[in-house]
Design goal:
alpha+beta, 434 Repressor (Amino-terminal Domain), Umud Fragment, subunit A, 2 domains, 7 helices, 10 strands, about 25% strand
């Protein structure tokens, strides 16, 4: 019986190319991914190697692998292509070499950073509408050194809780995102947090040739692309809060 040669998936080839670009071993990647997972879960070097070689066509840890390699989240979408803009985005990306977590106020951290946390709060007038308000502060498990390497000023960071399934499976309902308010200029395909009529939205953004924006979700089956002209952006009070520079993936 003839053996079939394994064929790596598009994502496996991308992960391998990125790993080699960063001069990481498969064991390095497995260790970084394990650091991002809950204590009861881990990714072994053998499992990661099988995925890279095509012996396994899927990986339940694909989100964490992309995060460990500091790849933009839209690489997980089948629509992602090696366009010049995407290649430039990968070339400019910096490696995050430590786990990124939200800690409670009692957690002692060296070189800690405390930032505001935004949440949607239902208004008390019975209208069912919500307002985006600061809801205390949280401490990030990211050192100031790492933030500096990423080009993120701690003074520009806010965190927010994501609601809904529009960004599944990359950012599940209830997860937290870190937002860099210092970066609001749109780069096609990058991930941004927006205030839309006082509601929080996280979307991939694309500039339209005639002006305005296209908003894209990961869950495009239930949340198709939306296009907004400059006039509609103004009328619906759409404001780019900043670039999402990390997101939690624990469920």
């Amino acid at each position: 019986m003839t053996e079939t040669t394994p064929v790596p998936s598009r994502l496996a080839l991308l992960f391998k190319a990125r790993r080699e670009e960063l001069q990481l071993t498969q064991e390095d990647v497995a260790s970084r991914v394990t650091a991002l997972l809950p204590p009861s879960k881990r990714l072994t070097q053998q499992s990661y190697a099988a995925f890279e070689k095509g012996k396994s066509q899927t990986s339940r840890h694909a989100i964490a692998i992309a995060q460990a390699l500091n790849l933009p989240p839209d690489v997980l979408s089948d629509q992602w292509r090696h366009s010049p803009q995407n290649i430039e985005s990968l070339a400019n990306a910096k490696l995050i070499a430590e786990p990124i977590l939200i800690w409670d106020e009692k957690t002692p951290l060296a070189d800690e950073v405390e930032v505001p946390l935004l949440k949607e709060v239902e208004l008390s007038n019975g209208s069912g509408r919500t307002a985006l308000q600061e809801h205390g502060k949280v401490k990030l498990g990211i050192s100031k050194t790492t933030l500096q390497e990423m080009g993120v000023d701690p003074a520009n960071i806010i965190c927010a809780s994501v609601t809904g399934n529009s960004m599944e499976p990359v950012i599940p309902d209830g997860n937290t995102v870190g937002i860099d308010k210092g970066k609001t200029s749109v780069r096609d395909g990058d991930l941004f947090a927006l205030r839309h009529n006082n509601q929080l939205r996280v979307r991939m953004l694309y500039r339209l040739p005639i002006g305005g924006l296209r908003m894209r979700s990961f869950n495009r089956d239930e949340h198709p692309d939306e296009e907004y002209s400059d006039e509609r952006i103004k009328a619906e009070n759409i404001e780019i809060l900043g670039r999402v520079f990390w997101y939690s993936v624990l469920r």
